[in-house]
Design goal:
By secondary structure, the chain is α/β, with parallel strands linked by helices. It contains eight helices and seven strands, in the order βαβαβαβαβαβαααβ.
């Protein structure tokens, strides 16, 4: 994360981040706070350490343990955000799973359920309850974390790829229905980013780096490079951006 003073583009706003314990979610929660937002960070494991880090930097944050696979947890998360800070202006739906990368014919019903429950149904529930709260307060913005796999395909990743295409479908449709009511809905499509999830997809010493080095950009991206784009979409600077899935992949998907 840059040591430069961040512009306070989210000053006075309340931001909710799911899947905030590591990777892109963690980096985005920190970036939101640097830009002036009060942040509710959520994940299944305890994330008090992240809250402590944000507070140590002089910003405001609250932890909320929640599982997006459980609708009541999602509803409680939105309710806690509102009870703590009075509103929810920004939501970054980052929680998700890669499942298992195996050949298409070997993909199982169990893996299908695990991937679609988290990546699609969890995002759907999050969007639904966040949007209801935003409509009641007069507006807000939702950003979903999809993937460059939402616009291209990869061998051995059929279910993951399908789930991310679905996230973009939800994003576009919700945007059409909600924009005139003051709620913007967008998505980001990260490429190969240095995160624990990426390490699981390409296990082994140097495997992910070797893949990234051979790709169009010649390197992997960092969570911070995604976080700054999410922060832009969350800000009023993006007031006429809605229904968009923004590729952040170093040009990988154009090859």
């Amino acid at each position: 994360m840059s040591n430069l003073v961040a512009p306070k583009t989210l000053s006075g706003k309340v931001a909710l981040v799911t899947g905030a314990s590591s990777g892109i979610g963690r980096a985005t929660a920190i970036e939101f706070a640097r830009r002036g937002a009060k942040v509710v960070v959520s994940a299944r494991p305890e994330i008090e350490a992240l809250v402590a880090e944000i507070r140590k930097q002089g910003h405001e944050a609250t932890a909320a343990v929640a599982d997006v696979n459980i609708e009541q947890d999602v509803m409680d998360l939105v309710a806690k955000t509102i009870s703590t800070y009075g509103r929810v202006d920004v939501a970054f739906n980052n929680a998700g799973t890669e499942g298992e990368f195996t050949p298409f014919l070997d993909q199982s019903n169990e893996v299908y359920d695990a991937i679609f429950n988290a990546n699609v149904r969890g995002v759907f529930w999050s969007m639904k309850h966040e949007a209801k709260a935003m409509l009641e307060q007069g507006g807000g913005t939702i950003i979903n974390n999809a993937s460059m796999g939402g616009v291209i395909g990869f061998a051995n990743a059929a279910l993951y790829i399908a789930s991310k295409h679905a996230v973009l479908g939800l994003t576009k449709t919700a945007s059409i229905e909600l924009f005139k009511q003051g709620v913007r809905v967008n998505a980001v499509n990260p490429g190969v980013i240095g995160t624990p999830m990426t390490d699981r997809i390409w296990p082994g010493a140097g495997a992910m780096e070797a893949f990234a080095n051979s790709s169009v950009p010649g390197r992997s991206g960092s969570p911070a490079e995604i976080a700054t784009v999410v922060a832009f979409l969350a800000s009023d600077d993006a007031s006429f951006v809605s229904g968009h899935g923004l590729l952040i992949d170093g040009g990988y998907s154009i090859a």
